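Service request form, structural biology core

Requester: graduate student, group of Dr. S.
Request type: structure prediction, single chain
Budget code: on file
Notes: please return the result as structure tokens.

Sequence provided:
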Amino acid sequence: MHAQLASWIAAARKIVVFTGAGISTESGIPDFRSPGGVWSQSQPVFFEEFLRSSSARDEYWRQKSITHREFASAHPNLGHRVLADWERRGLIRGVITQNIDGLHQQAGSQAVLELHGTAREVACLG
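Core staff response, request fulfilled:
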């Protein structure tokens, strides 16, 4: 299987890699949906709830304080570093990720599209 993947990469001209929680679990970042994941311990707070309810905002920021600590102590792993190296060498065009942890960028990837946003920065809504 590895030889087949290597030959596909060598023959391809434009590769984009899609990643999800699995790439970051090795770095100590929990996933959201598995048993023991983030959503097994608390429910997501949706944007409309956040705007409407002070208790929803309290819950959102409680959850964020936990994930920010986990993200702050996490470091890119071999998977993140390999993808950054492949981008530098021109083997891939970039990474599209469901992750919000910023580990692809910490590893050196430049062309990263974060489908669910990022936890690396916070913007005031007004």
